[in-house]
Amino acid sequence: MTQFTTISEILEAVEEQDIDFVKFHFSDADGIFKEIDVPSALLENAFSKGLPFDNSVGGTFKPTGSDLMLKPDPRTFSILSYGNARLNTKQRYGRVTCELTFLDGQAFDGCVRSNLKLFVRKIYQSGYTFSVSSSLSFYLFDSASVLPVCAPSASSAPFASSVPSASLSPETILKMENVKRDILTALNNADVDIVSLRQTHVGGPIAMVFKDGSVLRTADNMMTAKYLVSDVARRHNLHASFMPKPATNLEGLSATFGFTLMKDEFNEFYHPDQDMMISDKARGFIAGIFKHIRAISAVTNPSVNSYKRIVQKGKAPYYVSWSAVDRNSLVRLPSSRGRATKIEVQNADSSCNPYLSLLVLIAAGISGIDEELTPVAAVNFETHDYSESEKLALSAGTLPSTLREAIAAFNSDTLIKDALGESVSTSIYQTAAMEWNEYIGCVHAWELEKYL
């Protein structure tokens, strides 16, 4: 796939392939792409000068007293096809990821992408570079079966993917296979590099595993992938869900981030002569995340539903622990060492905003290195048969059990809020507080079944 780097290359490709419009995408604080369609005739001016717009577009930005400007990043431009790729559809459109500024070009601190880019740039200026691996999972549901929130029958979860695989019709299985094939085509066309698109069993979650890349490219790829997966599924009359725990009897949906810290071509997390062959910087990075993880959870696990996935006996991390063996630990050390030494954080879910999640995880990890922190001892053995009290004794505590706990921790964590900036921090706290208040005032299916 062609990698565009300049405005002239984009304009030439748009003309050659007869593109009618380009979708200008920008992320809100909730991690959802908003879009404005720009006719091809206006592209040159929009790319070179930016695109002014009313900051109420999408309804998620707090009033700033000023309109904003979309500044597209030419390196994220790609050309995609309408409809089903197997039908050889001729209609095409362009898309590009944008940042937000004020009309005078000054930075808008509510822009999640530029906040991450500026933070990573400071690290780069100190001589360090982060490389990130990541994964993201989702479900494919029958669009006609998706029920509204708080519907009394919601607990039955009549989704295609909640039905045992043996009962799925051959037509449904074939349809899902066709969707996965078209998702791979769309990701390739958008220059989103993945290692695999895997589904361990029919009707189960589908995981996208992304190739290692820079921090910003990783976040861009994850956001673009979520958009494309949803778009392809919709064109097949299916619904792609990134809801952390869409049904009681379904496996939760995760997002993972694996970090490598490089300096002068050397992996700073590796040390051949220390325990587990990892450095003091690696231990400091882990300890920094542990110190701030309860506040971080408000970002990496941003909804009420996120905490239906994080339970004591679930597959998702619950205890604040790290291990090279226990796959359910909060932080996992993959077996590779040397240049490939990596610290993998596993608590995030698929609903998270990758721009903000990467920012707070790196900020916490770097603070742990700077403060020369040391984490609790690693749990390098399986803990399946251990009691909950034994697991707690081996850990540095637990993750929050509810969104309310997470936002309380977030509101008292100065480092995390400073890393995000005042505008984004305020948005996260207010949105979460509003969601929690709505949730506790809603009568749910479980309550009706138990008490009615």
TrEMBL record:
GO molecular function, one term: glutamine synthetase activity
Enzyme Commission number(s) from the entry: 6.3.1.2
Pfam families (UniProt xref): Gln-synt_C (PF00120), Gln-synt_N (PF03951)
PROSITE patterns on file: GS_BETA_GRASP, GS_CATALYTIC
Alphabetical GO biological process terms: glutamine biosynthetic process
InterPro entries cross-referenced by the UniProt entry: Gln_synt_N, Gln_synt_N_sf, Gln_synth/guanido_kin_cat_dom, Gln_synth_cat_dom
EC supergroup of this enzyme: ligase
Record's keyword terms, sorted: ATP-binding, Ligase, Nucleotide-binding
Record bears the keyword Disulfide bond: no
SUPFAM superfamilies: Glutamine synthetase, N-terminal domain, Glutamine synthetase/guanido kinase
Domain GS catalytic: 112-452
Domain (GS beta-grasp) ranges: 17-105
Similarity section: Belongs to the glutamine synthetase family.
Annotated protein name in UniProt: Glutamine synthetase
Organism field: Methanimicrococcus hongohii
Chain's gene name: glnA
